[in-house]
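Have a close read of the entry that follows and walk me through the local backbone shapes. See right below:
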Amino acid sequence: MSKNDSTMSNGKAWALILGSSSGFGGATAIELSRLGINIFGVHFDRAATMPQVNEIIEKIKKNKVNVVFFNINAADEKSRGKAIEQIKKTMGQEEGSYVKVLMHSLAFGSLGPFFGKNAADSLTQKQVEMTLDVMANSLVYWAQAVFFAGLFKRGSRVFAMTSSGGHTVLPNYGAVSASKAALESHIRQIAMELGPYGVTANSIMAGVTDTPALRKIPNSKQMLSIAVRKNPSGRPTKPEDVARAIALLCDDRATFISGNLIGVDGGEDIVSYIGQLSPNDLGDGSI
């Protein structure tokens, strides 16, 4: 890729979405396909959840675009290399194709305390390093792979899904919180280094959203209930809210928005006080 490449929106646009089988990644894949953007999806699913993956693929196909999903470990170097080679081969079938969007929405990490009742109840070095590698560092490696394969062009976008966990703490959330903070830092660095090539990079901070990743967090129902009370809109964030925001930022008029932490939460994060909570407020977490 050349810094002097002035192409912005010519050619055939593709989105490469890491974590495409559910939640934010799945919703964004569907939304971008409505814009005529072809979809490469990277996910890691077993047979039990493949029906959900196939449903997303079918929704994308209905928008008359090409779609290729890779069921691989996105943090594995060899798997990433093979996927990039296949992506290059697929895109090479039509001259001018490029990666318009690289989205990082991987949510796989270890939950637990740094300091449990004993060492056996505490996160290990391997668990902490795995969490940061999957949920943060993998963004850098995929962005590098796309860049050195010459698949970015001026007007390409990089997005990373973060949360208020990047600047706040929760019980058992230490490793994930650290990964979100690192992910935001990586986005800032990518924005600076790829800026001369006309590529923008932004972190998208969603509000508390009912996704498979959230449900793995203890007391997630209570978190959703509290989020509804905090949110000025009176409801939690939905994956489709985030998908539409990303689609908006893909507009050619958004080429000077880069290096930012952009909240898509209806104002949830700015509200810090919701009155005195009673035990009944938390209840069973129903909304």
Summary: The chain has one domain: 13-282. Residues 125-148 form the longest helix (24 residues). The beta strands are 13-18, 38-43, 67-71, 98-104, 157-162, 200-206, 261-264.
